[in-house]
Amino acid sequence: MKWLVILGLVALSECLVIIPLTKVKTMRETLREKNLLTKFLEKNIDGTLQNATDDPNISLQPLKNYQDVVYIGNITIGTPPQEFRVMFDTGSSDLWVPSIYCHSAFCHKHRVFNPVLSTTYHFQNRCIENRFVAGRTVGFLGYETVRIGNLVILGQAFVLSHAQIGFEYVPFDGMLGLGYPSLAFKGTTPIFDNLKNRGLISRPVFAFYLTSRKENGSMVMFGGVDHRYHKGRLKWIPVSRTHNWQITMNRITLNGMVVGCFRGCQAIVDTGTTFLMGPTRLIVTIQKLITARPGGRKYMVQCSNITSLPSIIFTINGYNYPVPARAYFKKHHDGTCSSMFRGGLENLFPSETWILGDVFLRLYFSVYDRGNNKIGLAPAV
User: What percentage of residues in the chain have a pLDDT greater than 70?
Assistant: First the structure.
């Protein structure tokens, strides 16, 4: 890609990035001078030690629940560490955070990465555009030290975003993808693959425990499974396509009637999606069956009706995973209740495909096994 440096400006076909030419004294140097660096790096951003599990091979990262819409955890990037709130997303594979070169409205409300303050930052003259269902980001590629709890990844590829469209009101600064390498930007290695390939974790697995009972208490764990977070034995499902965390689903039923996935279909297990999503025509049928009626951009129901509505059962690999009405409706502060089913997937996939988002994953503890390409599910505690 052609690029040009003029008075500290780097021009990349679609990217225009200001690269300061001077450096200031870093926090790392200051801490080292005062013999405080080791203690600083041994602790996370809250000043508490990370690994709270009995198994030293498992690294736990706390997640905060924002109104049952998104789960966010803290990471740091750079040396000394700069803190960011990111969504841990199984539906993508890249890490991006906003940078000091960003002038979008989004960046005025979020933390931004400053490469000038880091002694370990490496710039690459490559413009990156990342498209999501909700919007897109534009930035450039860099390499840095990334810390997730007590895990430290050196030279990790990430995107320093300088424009965000469609993310103005999200509570997180950036996203950390945990999907397969085929989803990542060409020529880069995702974070989990670096953890796995460099022997930084004892087993090539990670797992999610998502809860709606309180703001704190949710977890993502790396390197193993803390079985205190689920009931019964894990049931394993082969990954049908190593791109997304995609599996084969048998059917979807309500009161014994098949309402979706009539001849089998595909499902993507996605921690970065709030809803249960599927083809619009099938979602509209389900909305009618659960007495939800259009109300603006949502489907609404009388909250008093929820207790009388049946569970919707997702049958996967021969096992039933019920989702009760209390889970597939959301009660709002104004006393109204809306359906957590959404359509719109018919144009994104060649065959019938569903997304099992946080509505499903709050009920079922999920394990993602890259060594054997399978997903484990069990009822969450």
Answer: 86
With beta carbons less than 8 A apart as the criterion, state whether 181 and 370 touch.
no
Domains of the chain: 59-222 (2.40.70.10), 230-379 (2.40.70.10)
d(CA 44, CA 293): 46
**Percent residues over pLDDT 90 in the chain:** 74
- Assess whether pLDDT exceeds 70 at residue 95: yes
Per-residue pLDDT, 134: 64
On whether the CB atoms of residues 107 and 98 are closer than 8 A, the answer is yes
Token digits for 30? Answer: 């200051």
Cis ω on the peptide bond leading into residue 80 (within 30° of 0)? yes
Query: 64 burial class (0-12, 13-18, 19+ CB within 10 angstroms)?
Result: middle
In which residue are the tokens 């599910």 written?
377
CB 197 within 8 A of CB 109: no
Angle (CA) 164-66-340 rounded to 5° is 90
pLDDT at 305: 92
| Of 158, 159, 116, residue with least CA distance to 27 | 116
Active site residue 270: yes
Whether 358 is catalytic is no
Q: Is the model more confident about 250 or about 52?
A: 250
pLDDT at residue 15, rounded to an integer: 56
- What is the CB neighbour count within 10 angstroms for residue 263? 9
Q: What is the pLDDT of residues 306-320, one digit of tens each?
A: 999 999 999 999 999
* pLDDT one-digit tens code per residue, 200-221: 999 999 999 999 878 889 999 9
Choosing from 89, 94, 173, 358, the catalytic residue is 89
Q: Cα separations (Å) of 231 from 43, 58, 221, 227, 327?
A: 31, 19, 17, 8, 18
Residue 235: Cβ within 10 Å count:
15
Could you give the C-alpha distances from 45 to 27, 151, 183, 328, in angstroms and in order? 14, 13, 30, 34
Question: Which pair of structure tokens corresponds to residue 76?
Answer: 């740091």
Catalytic hit among 94, 270, 358, 369 = 270
Which residues 6+ apart lie within 8 Å of 199 measured at CB?
none
| Cβ neighbour number for residue 83 with a 10 Å cutoff | 15
pLDDT band at 52, cuts 50/70/90? low
